[in-house]
Amino acid sequence: MARGLGPPGRPQPAPAMPKRGKRLKFRAHDACSGRVTVADYANSDPAVVKSGRVKKAVANAVQQEVKSLCGLEASRVPAEEALCGAGEPCGSGDELDAQEEGPNERTLSRKKKSKRHKETPEGAVGEEYPMDIWLLLAAYIRPEDIVKFSLICKNAWTVTCTAAFWTRLYRRHYTLDAYLPLRLRPESMEKLRCLRACVIRSLYHMYEPFAARISKNPAIPEITPSILKNSKCLLFWCRKIAGNRQEPMWEFNFKFKKQSPRLKNKCVGGLQPPIQYEDVHTNPDQDCCLLQVTTLNFIFIPIVMGMIFTLFTINVSTDMRHHRVRLVFQDSPIQNGRKLGSEQGVQVVLDPVHSVRLFDWWHPQYPFSLRA
């Protein structure tokens, strides 16, 4: 009778089989001690190894071992960044590890991640460069890109407020053959007062892209100048001019002050230039424009200075060869959506009209004071 290992008559328990899909426990020091398991290979059972990438613990251990063999210090770069540099997605392994970890290990990893996020300062969005760097970059900015350059940051905007910026911009585009008024010549540009306005005016004489804009502007009879609505008439004058006709013509000029964009948008506050550069940005003609109407004969016009310009219409004259212009002025601005009666306000009718032109304050034909 064969002897068994257990007592007779008692059934022997079957040997315990490992559960399929159970994760093999890995220790970091095993990678350096020469113990290699099936889980370290790519063609291992996917039920045993759920992740197809090298474990971070294995990568760190191997990295430290290589550094120690080479006589170097352990690298401070984590294995996650090394794997990311090789083209591996960084988030996939972390998600799989979080699914395979126990509840205690999962809470510890969450605490570490929260501490890592807290260490990152909230205000560290970018770097702040000194003013001298922005002043050097401003020397390569085109005149039409000044607004874009000033919107980069506050230091870039501050550079565009300096007298050095506008002086260098003037010298960069000045040519000896340029025909400039007396106030816009180099000997007059040494004054700091109204420097910015004078440089902008001179660019429309010297800078070709700006001069081309003026020549491409459409004639006013084709469009209605709605930008003049609710503008204040600051000044009015008329003069006799010589034209192509044998008889002289009359030129009627209306100087308007446009409604400020800040008041239109109900925005009181805004960026103001530094105090030391207030003279540079001073411009008595800011938001001003000139409406110039030329007629074939003299027409009596009532006094409209100080009144608000509310309506502008232009149509064909009775002789079908010229234009007829009608201007309406009110004592107060017209609110949006309010309709104006046909007989309200002071009306100015100019007929027959030879030409109608509108000049902004920077236009070469806009009359400005030499004391500006």
Secondary-structure element series: HHHHHHHHHHHEEHHEEEE
Please count the beta strands (DSSP E, at least 2 residues each).
Answer: 6
| SS content category | alpha+beta
Task: Please indicate the percent range of residues in DSSP E strands (runs of 2 or more).
Answer: 15-25%
- Overall pLDDT score: 75
**Separation of the first and last Cα atoms:** 128 Å
The number of helices is 13
Strand order in the largest sheet: 1-2-3-6-5-4
Q: Name the assembly state.
A: single chain
What composes the largest sheet? 6 strands, antiparallel, barrel
Structural description of this entry:
With 372 residues, this protein is of the alpha+beta class. Among the domains are: 131-215, no CATH class; 231-260 and 276-360, no CATH class. Helices cover 30% and strands 16% of the residues. It is built from 13 helices and six strands. It has a six-stranded antiparallel barrel. It starts with 29 loop residues before the first helix and ends in a 12-residue tail after the last strand. The chain crosses the membrane at residues 296-316.
Topology:
Layout: H1 30-33, H2 56-70, H3 79-85, H4 90-100, H5 103-119, H6 131-138, H7 146-150, H8 154-159, H9 163-173, H10 195-206, H11 208-216, E1 231-241, E2 249-257, H12 261-264, H13 278-281, E3 288-295, E4 308-316, E5 323-330, E6 346-360
Antiparallel strand pairs: 1-2, 1-4, 2-3, 3-6, 4-5, 5-6
Helix pairs in contact: 9-10, 10-11
